[in-house]
From TrEMBL:
Pathway: tRNA modification; 5-methoxycarbonylmethyl-2-thiouridine-tRNA biosynthesis. It comes from Chionoecetes opilio (Atlantic snow crab). One of its GO terms (cellular component) is cytosol. The keyword Heme does not apply. Keywords: ATP-binding, Cytoplasm, Metal-binding, Molybdenum cofactor biosynthesis, Multifunctional enzyme, Nucleotide-binding, Nucleotidyltransferase, Transferase, tRNA processing, Zinc. This is Adenylyltransferase and sulfurtransferase MOCS3 homolog. InterPro entries: MOCS3/Uba4, Rhodanese-like_dom, Rhodanese-like_dom_sf, ThiF/MoeB/HesA, ThiF_NAD_FAD-bd, Ubiquitin-activating_enz. Coiled coil: none annotated. PROSITE patterns: RHODANESE_3. The lineage of its organism: Eukaryota, Metazoa, Ecdysozoa, Arthropoda, Crustacea. In the N-terminal section; belongs to the HesA/MoeB/ThiF family. UBA4 subfamily. It is found in: Cytoplasm, Cytosol.
Length: 479
């Protein structure tokens, strides 16, 4: 209200008639206005300042006031944490959880002496980190190679507008320190790979998988089995989330349940499938709770059990998982995986969910956005098929497109529709467009198998609507 009131209040007072009383009050308003503008300026400068400070730390400079926020170099071994009696300050800070009979001072002492590694500082990692820090975990390791993007802020709630472009681990470290300066925070601005995973994981008591890709899930699983650490695994997509604990108290590991990786094309990420922020929020909090249960010996951990959360229905279901598999390649009786392997090769997919862009079609079956734009300018008759979901067309679309989602493109009614449109326009030219130019290539392939080349020539638009937004029309929103 305060921020929104500033400018609105000025235009309102300016339109009032100028009586003496009014002019006094408008002077007061003016001074209030300039004060608010100054405050706004100050806020902006403070944000810039914070960004610069974080960038400095990013370049491995130690900030004297907060040396623990330096990026950890991996070669630096961390001193062990030991259980000590609670100080008066700790008793005062954690009093509301200390009086829980099952947890009590004993649980708190264990938590303060515990270290938790969070891999992935996104939608799951943010809530997990802040709840663990607030509860008083002794040491929090944070791993992520990525930087904060504007489209992260709706769910990755520890990052701020002022930190867009900054390493996620530093952003989370900063937020965590602001809530509990007594927690040791160890940021690792790296991609967790086979060459570093064991070295990092061995330093921690529990590992939280807050990542978003299959290759990293197998890597973390194998590393946790080899280093003998419990792995609290979470995931969230659209309105649904899942949670379980692997390799703990004789329970199965991820490989016992999923010995083979899924075909890469069947895996959907948040960037393509969407996600409502509260869903990873719920699951991330539950991951933090499982970690606390493990280190403080509290309750019954979710080993050999999978929690399924349906945010739309507001329901939780717990299903029992199969037990440890004696033939499991990593945790079984005669394991064949004794060291970390190449997980990208094993999964046939990169250890990231970032869209790399694929080229499936020959150049002569594709047009660039510049070529398509010229064709539109020249009013060349053609049919443009947008193969995205209808909800995506509500965000942006090109004029005169026909929406046929990729999954429906080879259905008889879709083919009829395309043929009728072509006949109506007296053309054989079909162009397929999608968000980034991957699905549109699949659409071309599907259409080629349904339509004869005499009837039509199908091409895709390279880079899709995002290329159009960047190169042709900046009024098209990027999403
Ligand atoms: N091998 C890895 N090493 C380090 N960090 C990883 C690894 N794999 C995934 N991550 C990180 O895990 C996090 C997963 O979080 P999330 O999916 O919420 O974020 P995102 O990938 O930024 O989001 P979006 O999919 O919307 O672009 C990301 O920040 C990603 O960088
Ligand atoms: Zn196993």
């Amino acid at each position: 209200m305060k921020g929104a009131g500033g400018k609105g209040a000025v235009s309102h007072t300016q339109s009032l008639p100028q009586t003496r009383k009014d002019s006094v009050s408008s002077e007061a308003d003016r001074s209030q206005w300039s004060r608010e503008r100054l405050l706004e300026e100050l806020k902006k400068k403070e944000e810039e300042n914070e960004k610069l400070k974080l960038q400095l730390q990013h370049q491995h400079d130690v900030t004297p006031s907060c040396p623990s926020l330096t990026i950890n170099t991996l070669t630096h071994r961390l001193p062990p944490l030991t259980e000590t009696p609670l100080t008066h300050a700790q008793v005062a800070r954690y009093s509301r959880q200390l009086i829980l009979p099952e947890f009590g001072p004993k649980g708190q002492r264990k938590l303060v002496a515990a270290s938790v590694l969070i891999v992935g500082c996104g939608g799951l990692g943010c809530p997990a980190a802040i709840y663990l820090a607030a509860a008083g975990v002794g040491r929090l390791g944070l791993v992520d190679y990525d930087t904060v993007e504007l489209n992260n802020l709706h769910r990755q709630v520890l990052h701020t507008e002022g930190r867009v472009g900054i390493a996620k681990v530093l952003s989370v470290a900063q937020s965590v320190k602001a809530v509990n300066s007594t927690v040791q925070v160890v940021p690792y601005d790296v991609s967790l790979t086979s060459s570093v995973a064991l070295e990092v994981i061995r330093e921690y008591d529990v590992v939280l998988d807050c990542t978003d890709n299959v290759a990293t899930r197998y890597l973390l699983n194998d590393a946790c089995v080899l280093a003998d650490k419990p792995l609290v695994s979470g995931s969230a997509l659209r309105y649904e989330g899942q949670l379980t604990v692997y390799h703990y108290q004789g329970g199965p590991c991820f490989r016992c349940i999923h010995p083979k990786p899924p075909p890469p094309e069947t895996v959907t990420n948040c960037s393509d499938g969407g996600v409502l922020g509260m869903v990873p929020g719920v699951i991330g909090c539950m991951q933090a709770l499982e970690a606390i249960k493990i280190v403080s010996h509290l309750g019954t951990p979710l080993t050999q059990k999978l929690v399924l959360y349906d945010g739309l229905q507001g329901t939780f279901h717990t299903v029992r998982l199969r037990g440890m598999k004696s033939g499991c390649e990593v945790c079984g009786e005669a394991p064949t995986i004794k060291e970390l392997i190449d997980y990208e090769q094993f999964c046939g997919a990169a250890a990231t969910d970032k869209d790399k862009g694929v080229t499936l079609l020959d150049r002569n079956k594709r047009v660039t956005v510049e070529e398509y734009s010229a064709l539109v300018e020249a009013k060349e008759p053609h049919v443009l098929i947008d193969v995205r979901l209808p909800v995506e067309l509500e965000i942006c679309s090109l004029p005169a497109c026909v929406n046929i989602p990729l999954k429906d493109i080879d259905k008889a009614e879709s083919i009829n529709l395309i043929q009728n449109k072509l006949a109506g326009l007296g053309t054989s030219k079909v162009f397929c467009v999608c968000r980034r130019g991957n699905d549109s290539q699949l659409a071309v392939r599907k259409l080629e198998s349904c339509l004869s080349p005499v009837q039509c020539q199908v091409k895709d638009i390279v880079g899709g609507l995002m290329a159009w937004a960047h190169k042709i029309d900046s009024s098209v929103p990027v999403y």
